[in-house]
Amino acid sequence: MRSSLSFETEQFVLRKLHRSEELGFWYCLSGHPTLPCNVLKFKSTTIMLDCGLDMTSTLNFLPMPLVQSPRLSKLPGWVLKDGSTFLDKELKECSGHVFVDSVPEFCLPETELLDLSTVDVILISNYHCMMALPYITEYTGFTGTVYATEPTVQIGRLLMEELVNSIERVPKAQSASMWKNKEVQRLLPAPLKDAVEVSMWRKCYTMPEVNAALSKIQLVGYSQKIELFGAVQVTPLSSGYALGSSNWIIQSHYEKVSYVSGSSLLTTHPQPMDQASLKNSDVLILTGLTQIPTANPDGMVGEFCSNLAMTVRNGGNVLVPCYPSGVIYDLLECLYQYIDSAGLSNVPFYFISPVANSSLEFSQIFAEWLCHNKQTKVYLPEPPFPHAELIQTNKLKHYPSIHGDFSNDFKQPCVVFTGHPSLRFGDVVHFMELWGKSSLNTVIFTEPDFSYLDALAPYQPLAMKCVYCPIDTRLNFIQVSKLLKEVQPLHVVCPEQYTQPPPTQSHRTDLMIDCQPPPMSYRRAEVLTLPYKRRYEKIEIMPELADSLVPLEIKPGISLATVSAVLHTKDNKHVLQLPPKPPQPPASKKRKRVSDDVPECKPLKPLLSGSIPVDQFVQTLEKHGFSDVKVEDTAKGHIVLLQEAETLIQIEEDSTHIICDNDEPLRVKLRDLVLKFLQKF
C-alpha cells in the first residue's frame, strides 16, 4: 500500500515560487457586479466563473410589440443639430428620449482579454448567471466542460427559451448599426452617447445554439467534489438565493479560493446558505450582492400586496413584469395567503410566458433543492408551493402567450405576471400599450435588474400608475460584514462598485465592503494577481524509499535526511520513487535502443548544516599557523582576511567561499578547517 505524507523541501518550495504560472490570476470579463463573468487561472487550470449577460443595453432600444403599434410606428426619426437626417431610420425620438429602432442587442462579456478557447471548465452559480453561455461555448472555440446543478440548468434553459421566443416571434426587418460608429456615437444624446462597449453588443442567440451550449453541461450536486486534471478540486455549496444556486470552493492541497456569488441568508424557498465551508480561505471572491441595499425584501412584498389590492378594488388592472422563475414563486405564495383577507377571491391572476407551465411544474419537483419546510411537504404528500392550489381552484391561470386560450378567458380587472422586466420584448409590451392610457391601472416593478424609469421611457407619456417594489434577497452590506467576520478569509476580492458608496448616496459609507486588509477591487477588462501566501506541493513518497531514509538529529527534536530519488509527475500528482540502479555493462556490443536508456544516478555530495562561529574560527586559524588574521563585518556575514597568505574567506548564512591565488593546497587546508564546524548528512 502506498504511504502518503506532506513532503515539503526548500527545493520544491523555491521551484513553485519562481514559476509565474503557479500564481493566481483573475480576469474580469463583465462590468456588471450581479451578472458576473470572470476567469481564474489557478494551479495550471483556467476556470471561468459564471457567464452573466448584461441586458441593460436593451433599454436603449424601442419595444417590440406583438401587435402593430400605431404609436410606436409614428415616432419621428431623430435628426442631428445640423439638420442631418442620415440616422432617422435607425433612431427614433419619444418624449425627449432617443431609442434605436432595431432588434434589441445584449452586451457580451469581454472576448479579447484572453483566449477563451484555453478555458478548461465553466462553473455556473445560478440560472441568472448563465445567460451568456451560448455566446461563450459556440463562438470562442471553447471545448471544455460546464458544471452546474440540475435546477440551474433546467430553469436556465427556460429563461433562454423565453428570451429566444420573445425576440424571434416579432421579426424586425431593420437592423441598425450606423449609430455604433464611434464618430457618430459621440454626436448622439445621452444615454446612447455614454453607452459602453457597443462593439460588444450582439443580437440574441438561437435555440439550436442554446441546445448546443446546454449539451456541454455536466450536472453536479451540493458538496460534490470534482477533480480537475489532478491539480484542483472544485465543490459547489448551497448559496441560499435560488433553486440550485451555488457558491464554489476551488482548492489545491495548500491553497483555497472561495467564490461567493448571488447568496442569501433570508429564509425563502431554496436550501439555506452553507457558510461553514467558506472558512479558512486564502482568497474569498465576492460578487452578486443586492442591487437595492436600502430596500427590505419583506417590506417590499408588503407594499406589493397593498398596491395590488388597492388597484383592483378601484377597478384597475395590475401588470407585474417578471422572470418566469424565482421571485414570482414567493409573490404567488404571499398572494395565496393574502387573497381572501384582501377580498380578492374573484380576481383572476394570469401568468403568461412560453415557459409558464414548465416553470410551475419544475418548482414542485425539485424537492431536494428546497428548504427543509418545503421538503417536508413533499412527503405529506402536499405540494411544496401553494400556487398548485391556486391553479386547481382556477385563481391562477397560465398561458404560453396572449393568443389562443388567453383571448377567450381574459377578464378584467385582473393581475398579469409576464415578461420581460426590461419592457422591451415579450407579452409585457402588449399590456403596457393596452393599459398605459388609464390611470386606474398599475404596473408594479419587483425585479431589480433594470431602472424602472428607463424601462418606462419609450411608453411616455403614461397615465397608468407606476410602483417600484424591488425585491432582492441577495446579501446586503451588513450581512456581508457579518459573514466576513465569521469565515475570516485572508483576502477579499470584489468588484470596484462594492468598495465605494453608491453614486447617488455618496454619504452612505455603510453601503460598501469594509474589511481588513482592504478588499482588492477589479473592473471590466482588468487583470488581478491574487495574493496567495502558501507555496507548497504535496508529494507522495514510495514506502521502499521512505524505509531507506536515515534521519540525522541536527538539534534536539529536529532531524534531517537526504533524499536521492526520481520525481515522477503525472496528472499533476507527484511521486518520489527510488532512483534506478546503475545499468549493468552490456554483455555484448549489441546497440542499445533509445528506450533502454535510464537516467544515471550520480553519487551525491554530502550536505552540510550548521554555522561557523567567527571568533572560534579565527582561533583555529591561529593554532594552525595563520597570523595577522583580520575580520570585517558585511551585510550578509563576515570576511576573514589572511593578509600574509593574501587569502580571503567569505562567511555568509548559507554559503562559504575561499578565495586564494592558485594555491590549491592552501585552499584544501582552509576548507578542512571550515568543515570542522559543520555537520555532514
From TrEMBL:
A single GO cellular-component term on record: integrator complex
Region (Disordered): 572-596
Record has Nucleus as a keyword: yes
Protein keywords: Cytoplasm, Nucleus
Cellular compartments annotated: Cytoplasm; Nucleus
SUPFAM superfamilies: Metallo-hydrolase/oxidoreductase
Record GO biological process: negative regulation of transmembrane receptor protein serine/threonine kinase signaling pathway; regulation of cellular response to growth factor stimulus; RNA polymerase II transcription initiation surveillance; snRNA 3'-end processing
Gene3D superfamilies membership: 3.40.50.10890, Ribonuclease Z/Hydroxyacylglutathione hydrolase-like
Family the UniProt entry places it in: Belongs to the metallo-beta-lactamase superfamily. RNA-metabolizing metallo-beta-lactamase-like family. INTS9 subfamily.
Name of the featured protein: Integrator complex subunit 9
Source organism of the structure: Calidris pygmaea
Organism classification: Eukaryota, Metazoa, Chordata, Craniata, Vertebrata
